[in-house]
Each structure stands twice: as C-alpha cells, then as structure tokens.
C-alpha cells in the first residue's frame, strides 16, 4: 500500500516534469541578443567539425587562436570539437536547448536551413556583405553562404568532386589524355574495363560507386547543364531533360556498357579502387591525394584529374563555412573570430591539415596548393564548380537522392520515373 | 521411466570399451562443431588485430593480404597520439565503473522487489520498466538532453531551470542519466525469480528483514547474474558515444569512443589507426569477460541451498 | 526497495517517453516551438511508402534473427556449460562478436559478401552455383543482413543463458540420468523449462534489440540498395537528425513502440501462468 502511494506521486511528478519540458521547448523560440556594436570583447563558444584530432586541436589552439588573441585581447574562445558525423545531433540539441554557440562551422547545405529558421545572424547588418567578399572569392563560393541575397556564412574550405584517371592504365590502352567529353568517357571506360574468363569484373573502366551516389550524380547533372533547383529555389529542376540525360548516361554506363558492376565498390570501401588498380577512372574527391600519399605514393605521377564534360564542364563543391549565431550576445566578437578563421593564413593551415581546397582565391599561389595537384586543379577550375542545395528543406530532400539513383541503376525505375518521383518528394518537403 | 531403465541395463554387455569409444566420438564431433563455430565468431576480431599492424600501403594493395607482410607496431603509437586518449580512457573508465556500481546496487534492489515482494501494481510497474525500453534512443535523447540542460539549481540555473547550463559539462550528466538501465532491473528480476521460494520463507521465519534477505540470502546465490549485469553494463557504458558527446563541450570530459571517431572522416577513414585504437578499446572488454565467466561454474549455487 | 530505481526511471526515461508521446502530435522542427497538428504525423506515416518498407523490413528482420540466434545461443550455452577442454576459449570466442567494434564486423562481412573476390561466391562457384552481389542485390540484401544479425546476436544471448544455467539444480539431471533419459530428452524436459525466466528476458530484449537495429545496417548497406534494407529506427534517426523533424521522429517511434508492446504483451500472456 505504501509503495503504491509513492508510485502515484512519482507518476504525477513525471507528468509535471514532462509538461514543463514541453513548455520550455516552446519558450526558447525567442532568444534576445543585445549586442553593443563596436565593442569587440567577450567570451565566445565555437562549434566545429574541423580542426579535429590532436593535430587539428594543436593547430587551432596553439597557432590560430593565439594569433587571434593578439588582435583581440578582450576575447576568449572555448571550442567544442565535433566531426561531421555528429554535427547534426549537436546542432539539434544546441538549438532545442537554446544554448547556441556563438560561432558555428557548418556545411554548405546547412546554411539555408539554419538561416531560414533564424538561427544565423545576417552578416550584412554587421558590416560584411557579399559585395565586400567579391574580390577575394569566386562568385559561386560566396553564393554558397548567401540566402535570399543576404550573407550568412564565410567560406573556409571546400570539398570538391571531379574525374580522376590513372594515366598509366590509360596509356596501356593507347590514350594519352583523360577523356574530354561524355562520349570519350564512355569509349575509354569500355576499353579499360577488364573481366576474367567467367565474366567477373577485375577492373572497372569508370568507377561511380565509391562516391556518394548523390554527389556523383550531381557532377553529371552539372556537366549536362542542369541544376538542382530553379532560380529562387522554389521548384526542383533535376528532373528536367538535362537531369534525366545525366542519369541515363550513368545507368547506360552501368547497365549497357557495363564499365562497372553494382556491388563492385561502395562509399565504405577501405581503399579507393583507383589506388589499387581496380578502376582506371573514377569520380573522386580532392582528398584522394592524401590517401595516395599514405598508401600508394608511387602513383603520384599517374593520377590525373579531369573535368567531366557534357554540354559544359561539371564539378561539384561543398565545404565548411563559419557562421555567427543570431542569439549571440557578442556578435561583433563572433564575427571577428569567423573572419579571422576565414582569413588567408588560418584557413590555409586548416585546409592543409585536412587536404582540402582553400576558398580564398589568393591561396592558389601558396606552397600547399602548388604541391597538391588535385587541390590545385580544383582551385584552378572553381569557376565551373557548382554547389548543392537551394531551398531550406535541402537537408530533408538530399537523403532521398541515393535510393532514387539506386532504383534507376537497378532498373527498378527508368531514370525519368526515378527523378520524377524524387521531385515529387522534394516538392512535398518544400511545401511543408 | 523406471520401466525403461532395466531394459537398458539388460542389453548385451560389451559396454565398457564400446561406450568409451562412442563417448570419444561424440566428444570429437562436439569439439569440431564448437571449433568451427568459434572460428567464424573470431574472424572479425582477428581481422581487427591484423589490420591494426598493417601499413596503409599494404591495406591498399590488391588482392588484400590476410597476414601482415610487415608488422607496423607504430600504428598504435600513431593512434594514441591522434587524440588525448589518456584522458578519454580515464573518463570512460570512471563513467563505466560508476554506471556499473549504480546499476548493481539499485538494479538488484529493484529486481529483487519486483520478483520477490508482492505489492499492488507490481506487474504494471514491471511492464512499465520494459515498455520504457521500447522507445528508440534517438527520440529519447533530445528530451533527456533538455532535462540535463534545464536541471534546476545547478550550473547557474535558477529554480525553474533558467539562466545557466544545468548539468551540461558536468560529471552528473555523464554519470546519472545513464546510470541505471531497465535492462538490468529486468535481468535481475528474472534471476531472483528463478530461485526457490523455500529460502525466503525460512528467512522470514527467522525474522530477517527484506534488505537482509536481499543482501545475505538471495544476492549471493545469483553471482552469475551479478557478473553478467556488471559485464553488460560496463560494456554498454564503455561503448557509449552520442550521449557523452552531446552533454559535454570540453575535451576533458570526453570518452574513448569520441576519440575513435577522429579516424573516421567523411571521405577518408584511417583504417590502420582506427583498428589500432579500436583494439585498445576492445581488449579491456575481453579481459572483463574472461573475469566474469569464471563465475559460470555450475554447482556453487546449489551449495548455498543444501 | 524499488523506489530509487523508479525515481531514476521516472525522470530519465518516463519523462522523455511521455514527451515523445506528446510531441508525436506536433510539428516540432527544433528551430521553433512545437505546433499541435493532431494526427498529422500519423497520417503522413500511413502514406509513407519508405516507412512502410522500413516497417516490413524490421518485422522480417526480427522474425528471422530472434528465433535463430536464440536457438543457437541456448544450444551453445548448454554445450559450453559442461566440463570441457578449452571451455573458456570457446566461451570467449562466441562472446567476441558482442564486443568487437561494428566497423570491424562490417568490414569482414563486406569482404565475405564481396561479389568479385568474396569467399562466399568462391564457395558457391565451386559447386557451380552462380554468385551474387549479396548486399547490393535488392532481393538478397535483407537476407544477407539477417545472417549477420543472427551471427552477431548469439554472444549476448549465450552469456545470459550461461548465467541462467548456473541456477539449474544439478540434482534434477542426476535423477533424470538414473531414469535413463537421454541428453536430448534432458534438454527438453529439464533445461528448457528451468530456463523459462531467462528465456522471457532474452526474448523481450532480443525483440526490442531487433526492432531497434541500426548500427549494423548503417555500416553494411546504409539502408540500400533503393531502401531494400532500411529499418524503422533508421527512419526515426533520419527524421530527427537529418530532416530536423522531431515531431515526425516521435510519431515513428510511437509506431515502433506499439509493435513492441503488442509482441511483449502477447508473449507475457503466453508465459505468465508458468512463471510462479
């Protein structure tokens, strides 16, 4: 009897606590930030998926931040290190709990969602505009941090995807240059594909499966002259004629020309197939160079990047950008930190640590970029690079891409059907 | 039953040698079966060990090697230097030990009560504990985070949980919310349930209180269960990754699994370092298992009853 | 005696569970306050083809992994409970998958299933059976994942059965042996009935574990190909942390919860009478 009564009270307590929890969740929508313009001081918190590990920590805390403190002695920074794998979970709880870090590093696709929902501070009103950045960056890169004409994020590093070829294997087949068009790409890939007597694939002529399927498809979409969304990001356009042509080209390579078999490689593959000769060409990421230097330095002269060229050259870029919280109490200081991190020396060091592509145009001449052929290639061709994203719901939509592309590769749907269904899902998400 | 026994005994008698040979055959067959099973079970573990001493170049070669060409022990020092593992290791040890102790004490108390003390609503309470396991972690974790963050009167919070950061960045957040899992209560209950009733009746006649029956009579009889719960709680806690990451922002409070995540970047996994680090994180669990399984010796439970 | 546990569970689990129930009727985007939408999420779930697929996959996965790994585990536990040379080594071996990191497990099974050089296709081709791209074939991917699920699930269940076997009175076996019961008969007549409380635990925990399978699928197939192996928890995770639709994630969790509660209550009804 005694125990029973006790339990009832605990139940009541639990219900009350649940209620207050929901109430506090409701209450944190309007956080007020009172900033004193011009006064660059205060304690800052920063959330970052880069500068990870001992190497990254050391770089940030022993080189970059001390330099920052020299310029801004009144500011202190405490850093929450994450990886991209858990960034969303951390951002979700931070936003839900109303403890949003003053400076947040995030990917290109995140900026729209967080800006549209009022989490990010508009930088124009703090004195940095897209125009003021125009001289330092390629226009598309600045656009990655812009939503509805306002600037919300400063680019620090880029991840790029393009074609890579093993020139030694191409030479064996009599090719002196990487393919210059879709048609050449197909011809080369067919010629470079090797199967044993029983038909088991030994070498893929062109590997499409080691790269995330969405990003792989986007490279072809861009090279077909297509885009993900219309101007203003109100309608999906990846199921336009260009988008369908891109997916048809990919499924053709896989199913008609059989330059690779489904299941031959995947994004979790422990070695990139270009590095062990299991593929002659591939869609690759610029940090293949880092893997190459570790695992197969003898191939340094043999890997050559190239632009996949349909009706126009296509290259994909994503990246990491610095943003300022709209609820920060020290927005000027936060902006100063974001600008400092995006500046030439700190951003060069951060890119070097991760093998990525600096966003700042002037860094093309740096020793790091000149010594890394893939990064150099990416920087030299940034004018043709395009990003993913568009509507604030992009993070919701992008997860549906891989299953859709897989269903086309598996011939469960035609490319047109697969993309139409995907566009339907995208419209539903954008309408919510 | 009794009718068949004489029939067996009545069989012609070349029993001794034949029976021994048959038993030998059964033994050999059994060992073959178990060995085959065991081999399929340890392959990934062995693969982890071997990968942890291969060079990146060897890992990239095709066809893949099984036995390392060259044993690169420096992978271990390389992995240890990639993150502050000494701190992480210490934190994991503190948290896992804390969780285990909390669970053993309160879990066994609750399990005993649910199994042995009749009270109104017991069945409902028991089902309630199980039901709470049925909501996935990913949905519970945000409310749990909010409770920690709005914990009243701590971390600068006022009575209504406003103003500060609650238990975030404290040991409380790491130790308390995950300290007691309904799994443990459930397992303890099942084990207390399997013990004979006569024991408690005798004890009650002797005038022992429930706490003493729990502590002196029943719990010593389920040492294998205690060992099992300890092992599983420790392991669960040791492998926890997301929660410690969410409730802390500082490296001093982070755990070993967070350290291991450094080797797995989006586009590039450092397999040699990842496997070296993972091996170091796994070995304590294997040792703990070997320790725990020593309690699985049939017979000593009955010693208590007789 | 149960009070500390009840208090702990009330705060740290019951409140989040209640919050999940409440939030499942809202549109909660994390960025803004939850907005009450009644059964809106549930209606959307009902029409969501991917979640239906996930539900079906989860049910199939559970239906096959739980009985198989439980059956193997109980037999292995009984075998490893007798006096046997190398017993400790065998026990450790069977428990190892439980402590081996999921990434290592996945890497090995990805190799075993590899369509070009995997040993599975190698063995099959030796017998003249054509190989497959197991994990990339929509007809086989789920079954391939189920095999790994059974394999991985044995260790934990064996451990619990081993612990439970220590409480089985040896005198029962001695009596049965005198009566001439074969070991197989002893297993069914004594061991299994004595293991009933443990079996109830293993069953419920396994069902819950199987319904919430995540890591294994994530590293083996990432839910693919074309959603052939996507699972309910997987969709919950996506809704919560990729789509930032916390209300939807809660509603999906409640659906999952309903399945589990139903299965547990059915099982409880079936076994309850024998327990006391």
Could you describe the 3D structure shown?
The complex is a heterotrimer of chains A (432), B (306) and C (276). Chain A contains 18 helices and 14 strands. In chain A, strand 7 (194-195) and strand 8 form a beta hairpin. The N and C termini of chain A lie far apart (51 Å). The longest helix of chain A is centred in the first third of the chain and has 26 residues, at 2-27. Chain A is globular, with a radius of gyration of 24 Å. Chain A has 432 residues and is α+β, with helices and mostly antiparallel strands. Chain A is 45% helix and 16% strand. Chain B is mainly alpha-helical and 306 residues long. Chain B has one domain (78-305): MetI-like fold (Orthogonal Bundle). Chain B is 65% helix and 1% strand. Chain B has helices at residues 4-9, 15-51, 56-60, 74-81, 85-116, 122-131, 137-149, 171-175, 182-193, 198-205, 210-218, 223-238, 242-246, 256-260, 271-292, 300-305; strands spanning 264-265, 268-269. In chain B, strands 1-2 form a two-stranded antiparallel sheet. In chain B, helix 5 runs antiparallel to helix 12 (223-238). The longest helix of chain B is centred in the first third of the chain and has 37 residues, at 15-51. By secondary structure, chain C is mainly alpha-helical. Chain C has a domain at 39-99 and 150-271: MetI-like (MetI-like fold). Helices cover 73% and strands 1% of the residues of chain C. Chain C contains 13 helices and two strands. A two-stranded antiparallel ribbon of chain C has the order 1-2. In chain C, a hairpin with a 7-residue loop joins strand 1 (26-27) and strand 2. In chain C, helix 1 packs across helix 13 and helix 3 packs antiparallel against helix 10 (196-211). The radius of gyration of chain C is 22 Å and the shape is globular. Chain C starts with a helix and ends with a helix. Classes of the chains: A alpha+beta (432), B mainly alpha (306), C mainly alpha (276).
Q: Which features would summarize this protein structure in a list?
A:
A: 432 residues, alpha+beta, D-Maltodextrin-Binding Protein, domain 2, 2 domains, two-stranded antiparallel ribbon, 16% strand, globular, disordered N terminus, C: 276 residues, MetI-like fold, 13 helices
């Amino acid at each position: 009897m005694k125990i029973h009564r006790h339990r009832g009270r605990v139940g009541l307590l639990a219900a009350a606590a649940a209620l207050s929890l929901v109430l506090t969740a409701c209450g944190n929508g309007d956080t007020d930030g009172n900033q004193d313009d011009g006064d660059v001081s205060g304690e800052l918190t920063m959330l970052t998926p880069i500068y990870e590990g001992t190497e990254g920590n050391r770089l940030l805390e022993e080189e970059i931040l001390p330099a920052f403190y020299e310029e801004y002695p009144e500011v202190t920074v405490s850093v929450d290190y994450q990886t991209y794998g858990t960034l969303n979970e951390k951002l979700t709880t931070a936003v839900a709990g109303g403890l949003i870090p003053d400076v947040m590093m995030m990917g290109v696709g995140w900026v729209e969602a967080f800006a549209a929902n009022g989490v990010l501070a508009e930088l124009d009103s703090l004195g940095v505009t897209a125009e003021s950045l125009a001289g330092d960056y390629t226009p598309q890169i600045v656009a990655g941090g812009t939503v509805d004409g306002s600037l919300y994020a400063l680019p620090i590093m880029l991840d790029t995807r393009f074609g890579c070829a093993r020139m030694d294997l191409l030479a064996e087949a009599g090719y002196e240059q990487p393919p210059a068009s879709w048609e050449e790409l197909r011809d080369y890939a067919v010629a470079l594909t090797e199967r044993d007597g029983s038909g088991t694939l030994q070498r893929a002529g062109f590997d499409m499966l080691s790269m995330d399927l969405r990003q792989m498809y986007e490279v072809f979409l861009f090279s077909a002259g297509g885009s993900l969304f219309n101007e203003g990001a109100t309608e999906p356009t990846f199921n336009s004629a260009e988008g369908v042509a891109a997916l048809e080209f990919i499924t053709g390579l896989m199913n008609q020309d059989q330059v690779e078999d489904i299941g031959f490689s995947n994004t979790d593959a422990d070695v990139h197939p270009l590095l062990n000769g299991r593929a002659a060409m591939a869609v690759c990421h610029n940090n293949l160079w880092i893997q190459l230097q570790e695992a197969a330095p003898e191939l340094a002269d043999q890997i050559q990047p190239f632009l996949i060229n349909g009706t126009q050259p296509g290259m994909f870029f994503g990246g990491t950008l610095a943003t300022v919280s709209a609820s920060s109490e020290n927005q000027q200081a936060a902006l100063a930190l974001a600008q400092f991190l995006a500046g030439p020396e700190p951003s060069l060091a951060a890119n070097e640590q991760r093998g990525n592509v600096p966003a700042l145009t002037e860094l093309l001449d740096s020793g790091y970029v000149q010594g890394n052929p893939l990064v150099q290639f990416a920087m030299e061709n940034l004018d043709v690079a395009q990003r993913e994203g568009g509507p604030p719901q992009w993070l919701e939509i992008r997860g549906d891409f891989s299953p859709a592309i897989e269903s086309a590769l598996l011939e469960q749907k035609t490319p047109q059907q697969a993309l139409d269904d995907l566009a339907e899902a995208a419209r539903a998400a954008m309408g919510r | 039953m009794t009718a068949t026994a004489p029939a067996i005994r009545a069989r012609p008698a070349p029993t001794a040698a034949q029976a021994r040979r048959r038993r030998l055959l059964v033994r050999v067959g059994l060992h073959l079966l178990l060995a085959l099973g065991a081999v399929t079970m340890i392959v990934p573990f062995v693969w982890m060990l071997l990968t942890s001493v291969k060079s990146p170049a060897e890992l990239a070669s095709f066809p893949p090697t099984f036995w390392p060409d060259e044993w690169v022990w420096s992978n271990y020092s390389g992995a240890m230097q990639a993150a502050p593992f000494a701190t992480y290791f210490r934190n994991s040890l503190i948290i896992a030990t804390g969780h285990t102790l909390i669970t053993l004490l309160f879990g066994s108390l609750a399990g005993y009560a649910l199994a042995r003390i009749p009270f109104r609503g017991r069945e409902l309470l028991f089902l309630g504990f199980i039901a709470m396991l049925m909501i996935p972690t990913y949905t519970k974790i945000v409310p749990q985070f909010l409770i920690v963050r709005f914990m009243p009167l701590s971390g600068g919070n006022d009575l209504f949980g406003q103003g500060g950061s609650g238990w975030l960045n404290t040991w409380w957040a790491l130790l308390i919310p995950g300290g007691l899992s309904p799994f443990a209560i459930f397992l303890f209950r099942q084990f207390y349930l399997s013990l004979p009733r006569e024991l408690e009746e005798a004890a009650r006649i002797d005038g022992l209180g429930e706490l003493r029956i729990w502590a002196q009579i029943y719990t010593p009889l389920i040492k294998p269960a205690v060992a099992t719960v300890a092992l599983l709680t420790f392991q669960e806690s040791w492998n926890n990754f997301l929660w410690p990451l969410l409730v802390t922002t500082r490296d001093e409070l982070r755990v070993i699994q967070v350290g291991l995540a450094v080797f797995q970047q989006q586009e590039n996994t450092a397999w040699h370092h990842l496997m070296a680090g993972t091996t170091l994180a796994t070995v304590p669990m294997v040792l703990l298992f070997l320790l725990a399984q020593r309690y699985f010796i049939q017979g000593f439970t009955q010693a208590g009853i007789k | 005696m149960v009070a500390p546990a009840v208090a702990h569970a009330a705060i740290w689990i019951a409140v989040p569970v209640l919050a999940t129930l409440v939030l499942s009727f809202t549109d909660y985007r994390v960025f803004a306050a939850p907005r009450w939408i009644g059964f809106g999420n549930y209606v959307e779930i009902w029409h969501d083809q991917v979640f239906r697929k996930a539900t079906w996959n989860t049910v199939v996965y559970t239906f096959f992994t739980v009985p198989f790994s439980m059956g193997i585990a109980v037999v292995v536990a009984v075998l490893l409970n007798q006096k046997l040379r190398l017993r400790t080594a065998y026990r450790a071996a069977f428990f190892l998958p439980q402590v081996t990191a999921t990434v290592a497990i996945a890497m090995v099974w990805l190799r075993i299933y590899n369509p070009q050089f995997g040993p599975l296709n190698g063995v099959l081709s030796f017998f003249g059976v054509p190989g497959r791209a197991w994990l990339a074939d929509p007809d086989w991917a789920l079954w391939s994942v189920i095999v790994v699920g059974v394999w991985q699930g044995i260790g934990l269940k064996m451990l619990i059965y081993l612990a439970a076997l220590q409480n089985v009175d040896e005198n029962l076996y001695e009596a049965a042996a005198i009566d001439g019961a074969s070991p197989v008969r002893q297993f069914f007549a004594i061991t299994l009935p004595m293991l009933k409380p443990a079996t109830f635990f293993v069953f419920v925990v396994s069902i819950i574990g199987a319904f919430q399978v995540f890591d294994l699928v994530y590293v083996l197939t990432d839910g693919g190909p074309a959603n052939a192996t996507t699972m309910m928890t997987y969709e919950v995770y996506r809704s919560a942390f990729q789509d930032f639709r916390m209300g939807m994630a809660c509603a999906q969790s409640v659906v999952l919860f309903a399945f589990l509660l139903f299965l547990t209550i059915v099982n409880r009804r079936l076994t309850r009478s024998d327990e006391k």
